[in-house]
Specification:
The protein is mainly α and about 240 residues long. The chain folds into 2 domains: about 100 residues, 2-Layer Sandwich (Herpes Virus-1), CATH 3.30.40; about 80 residues, no CATH class. It contains 11 helices and 5 strands; from the N terminus they run ααββαβαββααααααα. The strands form 2 sheets. It has a 3-stranded antiparallel β-sheet. Strands 4-5 form a two-stranded antiparallel sheet. Strand 1 and strand 2 form a beta hairpin. Helix 7 packs antiparallel against helix 9. GO terms for molecular function: ubiquitin protein ligase activity; zinc ion binding.
């Protein structure tokens, strides 16, 4: 099993290369976080497997007792997560063409540029619109399960949407060792209502965290909170 995990880690290695080996056109992809799929922002690296992520993208994984790397799923020590200073230097050194206007921009400034690039905005506006299916005349079943709000599997608190459920469980049940059924998964057609997660918080943060806040604009207070949490995690190294 140890050998298999080692092979998986090496096969999924996403450490950015030391130079722009793929040319300018592939630089943005080479230096993109595997969670948010955007150019790294304040990158951090996991010591055991070497995988790199945006600092704020990795934060949810640091809030559970036994974290797993989001990419290779190997366990890691949260005290051995460090700032990826070598990646930060490369982000400041290398330039890549904007996906919209084709202007060469330093990777460290790519996020800011893309958010204000008129060509990118135009491309987004011209994306195909969602076309709903033709309305059906068949009656809607009355026993369709509720997949919008959920009850906490620990204390039974009700009417929590997915975001509220994640926040509630992290704040109120972080140390609860009980095995529970994931209410989000069990509400799905493929879900098993009898399967109990051995580490529900880990499952919740890895499986359901990024479905609601992948593209969130953080406020000043949230940014300050992130900086404080990251600084505390790194100071314990």
């Amino acid at each position: 099993m140890a050998m298999f995990r080692s092979l998986v880690a090496s096969a999924h290695q996403r450490q950015p290369p030391p130079g722009p080996a793929g040319g300018d056109s592939g630089l943005e992809a080479q230096y993109s976080c595997p969670i948010c799929l955007e150019v790294y922002h304040r990158p951090v690296a996991i010591g055991s497997c070497g995988h790199t992520f945006c600092g704020e993208c990795l934060q949810p994984c640091l809030q559970v007792p036994s974290p797993l790397c989001p990419l290779c799923r190997l366990p890691f020590d949260p005290k051995k997560v460090d700032k990826a200073t070598h990646v930060e230097k490369q982000l400041s050194s290398y330039k890549a063409p904007c996906r919209g206007c084709n202007k060469k921009v330093t990777l460290a400034k790519m996020r800011v540029h893309v958010s204000s690039c008129l060509k990118v905005q135009e491309q987004m506006a011209n994306c195909p619109k969602f076309v709903p299916v033709v309305p059906t005349s068949q009656p809607i079943p009355s026993n369709v399960p509720n997949r919008s709000t959920f009850a906490c599997p620990y204390c039974g608190a009700r009417n929590l949407d997915q975001q509220e459920l994640v926040k509630h469980c992290v704040e109120s049940h972080r140390s609860d060792p009980n095995r529970v059924v994931c209410p989000i998964c069990s509400a799905m057609p493929w879900g098993d209502p009898s399967y109990k997660s051995a580490n529900f918080l880990q499952h919740l943060l890895h499986r359901h965290k990024f479905s609601y806040d992948t593209f969130v604009d953080y406020s000043i207070d949230e940014e300050a909170a992130f900086q404080a949490a990251l600084a505390l995690s790194l100071s314990e190294n």
